[in-house]
Design a protein that fits this description.
The chain is mainly alpha-helical. It contains four helices and no strands. The chain has a domain of 44 residues.
């Protein structure tokens, strides 16, 4: 089967159905002058301020193949976390 580019246009076609309705809704919202705001929580600030040296060290260990996980420590942590939730 051969596909020709004869039926293709160089411009994308206009959205149809629900896509077109969403496009109209977006235009109406933007013209209505929305007042959306974004606030960064203290937790997000703390995450951004974390020291990346530990992550870099872990990354190097993983890349070199020397990073080892203690399966007992992982299991204990999962159990402890599960018991805390109840």
């Amino acid at each position: 089967m051969r596909i020709d580019d004869v039926n293709r246009s160089s411009q994308p076609s206009a959205p149809q159905g629900p896509e077109r309705a969403n496009e109209k809704s977006k235009k109406e919202q933007s013209s209505a002058g929305s007042s959306d705001q974004v606030q960064i929580s203290n937790l997000a600030d703390a995450l951004n301020a974390t020291d990346t040296s530990r992550l870099d060290a872990l990354r190097l260990q993983v890349q070199s193949g020397t990073y080892k996980i203690d399966p007992h420590a992982v299991a204990n942590s999962l159990i402890d976390d599960h018991l805390k939730e109840k």
